[in-house]
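Supplementary Text 2. Reproducibility record for the structural model of the 382-residue chain.

All settings were left at their defaults, and a single model was retained for analysis rather than an ensemble. We include the record here because the model underlies the residue-level annotations in Supplementary Table 4.
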Amino acid sequence: MATSNPRRKVRQDGTVAWQARYRDPDGRQRAKEFMKKVDAERFLATTRADMARGDWINPADAKRLFADVAEHWRTTQVHADTTAAAVAGDLRNNILPAFGDREIGRIRHSDVQAWVRRLSERLAPATVDRSYRWLAAIFRLAVNDDLIRRSPCFAIKLPVKADQKVEPLRREDVEALLEALPARYRALAVVGAGAGLRQGEAFGLTVPNIDFLRGREIRVRQQLKHLAPDPPYLGRTKTPSSVRAVPVGDTVLHALARHLEQFPAVTELVGHPSGQPELLVFTDDRGDPLRGNRFARVWGRARRDAGLPDGVTFHDLRHYFASLLIHKGLSVKAVQEALGHKTATETLNTYGHLWPDDAGLTRRAVDEVLGPCVAARRVAER
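Retained model, structure tokens:
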């Protein structure tokens, strides 16, 4: 418990100081000196109140370097491999240069806001938002571990993300891409446009996960991952909800069957979660697992030959697939399940603008059901 009165102390240089002495919750004697008695009294009163509330912070803990706390946070998190790589990159490039050598207890709200502003001048809003989330998580750990009393990450103004609505490719665009792609990668694009698989999911598709006969479906159980310098491997899907079975018709199944005839599956990777070697459906010209940077060059040439803009990526085939389902009247729930979204809200936030508006549906429902009855009555009254 804090003492009630500061002690007067004469220093070696003849100046007078006031020593605030107290015992911490562990019983250790502590002291802090002030030039003014009133400041020492205020400190003791605050310390006494903090101890009573259980909010007392060890001054030595607040002096720990941010870099040390950040490394402790990083090594204790349960992250997927790709997320862990993103965390390491953001820490190295965006966070530690600004805060690494500073005491964690001396980083203020204004420091964080100024850091966000500087990042916003050179990075996209999504990247700034991601780096800020890691920073805020590190400070939450510091609060939970009683290193600091309060996180400086509150009421921070982040850059506004542009509200860009998905504009699906047209059928002619997809046809042009299929024509421009080399034969080895054509079925890969068909799987993207006809089953909505993400690029990693398509790269990681194995022969056992295609049901050509009974179920007529593609089972998404894994995705191909690559974290340089390690070789590619089959790992978990983006989220647990990404695990799904996508019904596919003859267009996709015939494309896959023809692909396997032309380019027999010979490359094996250990499947996830089977733990057994499985044959990859898609490989590169050397028979190796597909790598994003190499495929990007193939895709870029095909995109240019098809006359499509630079921003068109493999993921746009997934958007095209979603637009087909919506155009054919499938429910939000059905589209959500086919895409592997966690919630229907996620599906609506991405594709809600593609569904027919309620006013149009209302008019059509009345005209289609009630219209014939009214028309028949008009005929009868003539």
